[in-house]
Design a protein that fits this description.
Blueprint (H helix, E strand, L loop, with lengths): L1 H14 L4 H9 L2 H6 L3 E4 L1 H4 L1 E6 L2 E6 L15 E6 L5 E8 L2 E9 L5 E8 L2 E8 L5 E5 L4 E6 L7 E8 L2 E11 L2 E9 L2 E9 L5 E8 L2 E8 L5 E5 L3 E7 L5 E8 L2 E10 L2 E9 L2 E9 L5 E8 L2 E9 L2 E9 L2 E8 L5 E5 L4 E6 L5 E8 L2 E9 L5 E8 L2 E9 L5 E8 L2 E9 L5 E8 L2 E3 L1
Antiparallel strand pairs: 1-2, 2-3, 4-5, 5-6, 6-7, 7-8, 8-9, 10-11, 11-12, 12-13, 13-14, 14-15, 15-16, 16-17, 18-19, 19-20, 20-21, 21-22, 22-23, 23-24, 24-25, 25-26, 26-27, 28-29, 29-30, 30-31, 31-32, 32-33, 33-34, 34-35, 35-36
């Protein structure tokens, strides 16, 4: 057993220095290595060239056609490292071992204030202090034990969560709140998930669920409507369930097996059918149909882990696209006009394409490469107004382009980088008058 563990970590470490395509070629043809690393490889290359790896309940994705493929089992960082928010502010900094936080580590709020600091072991807070935005200690964990609390640091500092910590994880009794003194859940946890006796509540304080949970799923529980009437009962993780939102509107009905949605089910939005089809472990898996807010069919076909993989897409009841999808984006297929004529074709994500919002308004029209926006393209607002006329690279605005305001007037022309104004450009007011000409960096003017 020890030799197997050593071998596993040996392979993880040597894979760090192998290029992405080589990783995929090795793993996809080597069942022994897959078993050794405890991963499940699902191959549907015949549909889209995509390989999916299921590992530790996380979804790792690899594309043998893309140069930017992900490392097959995550980035196994070793040594000191830093992570950043999208706005460029520091998210965390500290020590890593085999991709997990190990050693001294600090986390920060988006505005740069310290969130936590201390010692971590295998991604678990072990000897750590946690602060609110005022700099006050809200909880302290010693040797993996303590009482953990979370507050609404964005608005009024209300308590949102409190629980016991054991072995660096949420274990034991705990409570969750919608807001101050408005209880959402009270019961037991195991490794951060609801497990054991527990109760859920509506916003008005009326009990919603009570019973026994198992690994985050409902196991032996009853659900009540907002008036206190029993809606359904789950026994040993099985039953036909109905889920409602806080306004007592039906949002799902279907089969429930071993604590998750499994089998045929339906989703609703504002009392209208949104989706009907097959589920596996709470995810859309298998055949299904999707509808817009008007109740019109907009897609029918196959899903895998909530992603469309093959099927037909409709606009106002007429076929708009038929073929394969990758990350819900069109990949291999043909597009049609309202008269049924072919107007574009995608081969392995390459060609010209049109994207639409859920309510059928055009969202983007332009060129694709490897399933992403790449080349010339135009982007539109929810009401169909032209927003950008740009060059795209790997899905983002890169190169020269034009930007328009909500009135359809030109407000910027110049260079973009990674989706933002970057480089030389000109900015205009609503009357078309030049108000600035110069350089930009990360969307901001540079004086």
């Amino acid at each position: 057993m020890l030799n197997k563990i050593k071998t596993k970590y040996f392979f993880k470490n040597i894979f760090v220095n192998i290029n992405e395509k080589a990783k995929l070629n090795i793993i996809k043809n080597n069942k022994s290595l897959q078993n050794l690393l405890n991963i499940k490889l699902i191959n549907y290359k015949i549909l889209s060239g995509k390989y999916i790896i299921k590992k530790s309940n996380e979804l790792w994705e690899i594309y043998d056609a893309f140069d930017e493929a992900l490392i097959f089992a995550g980035n196994y960082l070793n040594g000191k490292g830093k992570e950043y928010y999208d706005n460029g502010n520091l998210l965390s900094e500290g020590e890593y071992l085999n991709g997990k936080v190990n050693g001294n580590f600090k986390e920060y709020y988006p505005d740069g204030k310290l969130l936590s600091e201390g010692e971590y072991i295998n991604d678990k807070r072990w000897n750590v202090k946690i602060y609110n935005k005022d700099g006050n200690i809200t909880c302290e964990i010693k040797n993996g034990k303590g009482i953990y609390k979370e507050f609404n640091n964005k608005y009024n500092h209300d308590l949102l969560f409190e629980s016991e910590i054991l072995n660096g994880e949420i274990n034991g009794k705990g409570k969750e709140y919608y807001c101050k003194d408005c209880l959402k859940y009270e019961g037991y946890y195991l490794n951060g998930k609801w497990h054991g006796k527990g109760k859920e509540y509506y916003l008005n304080g009326q009990i919603k669920f009570e019973g026994e949970y198992f690994n985050g799923g409902k196991w032996n529980v009853k659900e009540y409507d907002i008036n206190g009437n029993v809606i359904y009962e789950i026994k040993n993780g099985r039953g036909f369930i109905k889920e409602y939102n806080q306004f007592n509107k039906l949002i799902y009905e279907g089969n429930y097996i071993y604590g998750t949605k499994n089998g045929i089910g339906k989703e609703y939005y504002l009392d209208k059918l949104k989706f009907e089809g097959e589920y596996l472990n709470d995810e859309k898996n298998g055949r299904g149909k999707q509808y817009n807010s008007k109740g019109e069919l907009i897609f029918e076909g196959e899903y895998l882990y909530n992603y469309k993989i093959k099927g037909r897409q409709y606009i106002k009841g007429k076929l708009e696209y038929e073929g394969e999808f990758l990350y819900n984006l069109k990949y291999n297929g043909k597009g049609y006009d309202e008269n049924g004529n072919i107007i574009y074709e995608l081969i392995n994500g390459n060609g010209k394409v049109k994207e639409y919002y859920a309510h059928d308004t055009i969202k983007f029209e332009g060129e694709y490469l490897n399933g992403k926006r790449h080349g010339k393209g135009k982007e539109y607002s929810l009401i169909g107004k032209l927003m950008y006329d740009c060059d795209y690279l790997n899905g983002l605005k890169n190169g020269k382009g034009k930007e328009y305001n909500q009135y359809g007037n030109l407000c910027y022309e110049g260079e973009f980088l990674n989706g933002e104004r970057n480089g030389h450009g000109k900015e205009y007011d609503n009357e078309g008058n030049l108000i600035f000409e110069g350089n930009y960096m990360k969307g901001e003017r540079v004086n």
